[in-house]
Amino acid sequence: MKKIGIFGGTFDPPHLGHLIMAEEVKNALNLEEVWFIPTNEPPHKEKAMTRAADRLNMLRKAIAGNAFFKINTVEIDRSGVSYTVDTIRTLKKEYPTYAFYFIIGADMVEYLPKWKQIEELVQLVTFVGVRRSGYQIKTDYPLIEVDVPLVTISSSFIRARLTKNKSVTYLIPSSVHTYIKERQLYEKV
Prior knowledge:
Distance between the termini: 49 Å
Strand order of the largest sheet: 3-2-1-4-5-6
Oligomer: single chain
Number of domains: 1
CATH topology: Rossmann fold
Order of helices and strands: EHEHEHHEHHEEHH
Largest sheet: 6 strands, parallel
Helix content: 25-40%
Shape: globular
CATH superfamily: HUPs
């Protein structure tokens, strides 16, 4: 059975914290691949600042060079609000022999009781929780906990810096930064 990590998110923009988290979980659980699944519209936070096409292009640039990282566009293709249970149902139907490990930060672990059809979801996928500054990993749901280097970078932090024309060097891949500058994303409105 092929073991696949699933890493969903807005990736607005993707940053080194995302990449470190995915790599550490891949190594800790001996996953064969990690699939990044950019959301179309997240149900639990604000709408993305940038179009799905731009977030997808940034993500492609961010994971370039890592043969174990892939992108799956199931949520963008479906359009509308993205619910994890719908995504996992689709993936299980398309890949019935794969075992899926859904990677989430500690902030999302705390939110699990509010996820749509969580009782069904925990039967379909194994959750993997990673530490995040300011949050504890506590849940009544089954979960594998993986320690990763604590990197307190967030997409909102990067967007705020870009809006103020501050440096994001070493926070995002340089190819993503170049793309952001070329497309004039996150500029102060």
